[in-house]
Target: Lipoprotein
Amino acid sequence: MISSAQARMVANLAAASCLALLLGACGGGFNLPSLTSSPPPPDAEPGVAPEMPATIRADEIVGRWGLASFQNPADRARTEKMAREQCRNPYVITAGSSGGVIMHLADQATPQELRLKGSPSGKNYIGPAGPTPGDQDREIVSFDGRVMITRFIDKDAGTRYGNMVYVRCAPRA
Model:
């Protein structure tokens, strides 16, 4: 027959074993101090590349623009004409104080300074500082100096706003 002291000891040992297994399964294991003098290397952030300059300069997009958007690529020519007509009430892109441009982010009422950012694939983006492409960035799909087409990276904003067509307005006489 087992005494109550022995039963208690077996129960405590079983509880401690179960706790150790649970902690080990959750990744909550203990790290023992290293016996070497060099610290472990820091974990690199996956998918974050160093910021690259864009092939389009900020001063190239500063100015007055007619603005319209399309969802269907077949509507591009018609949308460019509609954007040109918007020059009566242009969207104005100004130069920022730290080399960027002042524009709106998706769903933001107040414009802010955004950066032009490049990528290893050769694509250009407009957005806040941070990883490229970031969720708030927009890709510059095409730019010829007269017409710029952008598309938001965020799927929801991209669906709502479509492809944004900016047509440069003629300078005021």
Q: What stands out?
A: The helical segments are 4-25, 58-61, 76-85, 155-161.
